[in-house]
Amino acid sequence: MTVCTPKSPIRIDTSNLELRQVSLNDAAFLFELLNDPDFLKNIGDREVRSEQQAESYLKTNVIKPQKFDYMGLWVIHSKSEQIPLGVVSVLQRDYLENLDLGYALLTRARGKGVAFEATSAMLEYLTQIRNVQVLDAIVKPNNTPSRRLLEKLGFDTDGMVTTPENEQLCLYRYRKV
């Protein structure tokens, strides 16, 4: 089934950040992000060990037709520094009922409000512009900073979910009011 929707914006702007969909030009940045120690610890090892593998990973796993044109990875780019800081993801996971909103930041971006600003902007875009009614988010139980962020965004805890890899994650749900 083909779903036709208006084109996604070229970017979503906040006061400090620009969010744009990932492209093959982001292979070097993605290589850095996928090998960040906290990414490996809190999200998982994607076994990407070179920029060439990052480009292949983008082609195979990230840049592909999606049900909605706003799905996928969005690069969080600093307006002032002109560098990528992380990603916001909008994904449909087989084991979740709703779209999954996620994020990952490089070390240099943590503790500066980047995650809140970027995820707030994406949440607003999805619920106000795209009229998405419910979103899920998953997080490891011991990832306290991410759990706090989800609660600050208005997500409520909704139990636990088991991934296909048999990992237990906290499930959070956001309902548009």
TrEMBL record:
It comes from the Bacteria. Residues 17-177 form the N-acetyltransferase domain. Gene3D superfamilies: 3.40.630.30. Keywords: Transferase. The keyword Transferase applies. InterPro entries: Acyl_CoA_acyltransferase, GNAT_dom, N-acetyltransferase. One of its GO terms (molecular function) is acyltransferase activity, transferring groups other than amino-acyl groups. This is GNAT family N-acetyltransferase.
